[in-house]
Amino acid sequence: MADPILAFPEGFVWGAATAAYQIEGGWNAEGKGESIWDRFCHTPGKIHNGDTGDVACDHYHYCQADIALMRQLGLTAYRFSVSWPRVVPNGCGAINPAGLDFYDRLVDGLLAANLQPFVTLYHWDLPQALGDLGGWPHRDVCGYFADYAALMVRRLGDRVRHWTTFNEPHVSAFLGYRDGQHAPGLQDEKLALQAAHHLLMAHGLAAQAIRAIAPQAQVGIVLDMFPTETDTDLPEDRTIVERAWQKEIGWFLDPLLRACYPPEALQAYGPHAPHIQPGDLALIAQRLDFLGVNFYSRNLVRNGNLVKPVPGSEYTEMDWEIHAPALRRLLVRLQREYSIPPLYITENGAACPDKVGPDGCVHDPRRINYLRDHFTQVRLAMDDGVDLRGYFVWSLLDNFEWSYGYSKRFGLIYVDYSTQRRIFKDSARWYAQVIARNGVED
Ligand code: FCB
After folding, report:
1. What is d(CA 217, CA 329) in angstroms, rounded to the nearest whole number?
2. What percent of the chain has pLDDT over 70?
3. Is 125 in the pocket of ligand 1 (CB under 6 A)?
4. Exposure pattern of 370-395 as b/e (b: 16+ CB <10 Å)?
5. What mean pLDDT value characterizes the chain?
6. Which residue among 345, 401, 404, 409 is best mutated to probe the pocket of ligand 1, counting the most ligand atoms within 8 A of its Cβ?
7. CA-based, 20 to 30 A from 55: which of 83, 149, 379, 381?
8. Band (2; pLDDT cuts 50, 70, 90)
9. How far is the CA of 281 from the centre of ligand 1 (A)?
10. Is the CB of 245 under 6 A from ligand 1?
């Protein structure tokens, strides 16, 4: 007898996500400008194995074939990002018509295949010319971003309803400007905090610009949430958990939803706190039509220390603990403590040691288990009252995993980078069944 089905509500969005720099390639094709990620990858020593996104999955040329794969999977939505320097090579000024045409064809192809486009305007590839100006720590970049957002909405707003301003401003600011692990590779906490503030301001300005052109647009932002948890009742552990929340999640959520930075974290940053001008926080706190949550894993603390590995837990190839119940707890906390708009899981998935077997197939049972566990936990969170509208698996295709290069495979679809051949992994076939049944086996 078939397992009973844990059903999702009708109209629940089942998608997959990608990002421009990670899949497109065509790094200097047809008038595209250089991005800070092009520059970073072309700098020796920055990326594992010297890999770059120059070609990646060559989605710039395989776009229509990739849409056909999405259709085969039965996805109802696709989350992708626009490369700002592909459409505005220097970040401001002259426009690249070939770049705009590419996204135009992508959106038309998606709609023809019955997929809803969810557009992310910024997934980390700032035009290098604006990097030269000072990048996100420079306040003028906010206005340029809003102009670029307006350009995209003018071009695609008649067909695209869901607009996301930023993907993971926390990662952009802190890994790029404080930890040096991402472009532009700086290590300066004060600059990182100023960058974070400007990313949020740019979000506010862009939200206004989008709505001025397309009042029916649904405007959101995507935040990464890698919560720190404890399973003790020790006050010391509770304090660590709360501090981590404020510095990593609240630092972005509170300005967006409450028009203030978490007061204790702000104080703790002391002289590194960002320079905030009157009116900035009101600008940031624009109404959100939805919030995107990217969730992969959690940190666990006990007796004041990070526990790693957590006894009994499995880890993905990113060395991230697999612990799906943390996603349910996270969603419930968001719902309980904030006036939260409808939510989407905009990224969730696992890197596995995928190989093409002698049978020509890619068997990835661990990814199937990972996804099943997380689908189940969000379904339980919905029973707890969380208003979750959809789920985007990271990622549609194996792709360029930032500083890890091509060494981590997150795709539902395997990519042979030497031939650009795509192969459905077992998880892709399994996901297609979940979508077709609108539910997971219990
Ligand atoms: C997220 C990024 C995404 C991908 C996954 C694994 O932080 O948004 O581009 O790299 O991690």
Report:
1. 30
2. 99
3. no
4. bbbebbbbbbbbbeeebebebbbbbb
5. 98
6. 401
7. 149
8. low
9. 27
10. no
Q: Compute CA 48 distance to the chain's CA centroid, rounded to the nearest angstrom.
A: 21
- In this prediction, residue 38 carries a pLDDT of 99
Separation of alpha carbons 361 and 369, rounded Å: 18
Average pLDDT over residues 342-350: 99
The pLDDT of residue 4 is 79
Strand 299-302, strand 305-306: pairing = antiparallel
DSSP code of residue 403:
G
Q: Where are the beta strands (DSSP E) in 228-376?
A: 228-230, 290-294, 299-302, 305-306, 343-347
* Predicted confidence (pLDDT) at residue 118 exceeds the cutoff of 80: yes
Could you tell me the distance, in angstroms and rounded to a whole number, from the CA of residue 151 to the centre of ligand 1? 26
CA distance readout (Å), 1 to 37, 203, 368, 433, 439? 51, 50, 21, 17, 17
- Judged against a pLDDT cut of 80, whether residue 76 lies above it is answered with yes
**Tokens encoding 204:** 């506010």
- Helix then strand then coil, in percent of the chain rounded to 5, is 45, 15, 40
Give the number of the atom of ligand 1 that is nearest the alpha carbon of residue 349.
6
For 246-350, strand residue ranges (E) read 290-294, 299-302, 305-306, 343-347
347 Cα–ligand 1 center, Å: 8
256-297 residue pLDDT tens? 999 999 999 999 999 999 999 999 999 999 999 999 999 999
**CA of residue 358 to ligand 1 center, whole Å:** 30
Say how far apart CA 222 and CA 201 lie, in whole Å. Answer: 15
pTM of the model: 0.98
β-strand pairing of 421-424 with 413-416: antiparallel
Helices (H), 223-279: 235-244, 251-258, 263-269
Model confidence at 1: pLDDT above 60: no
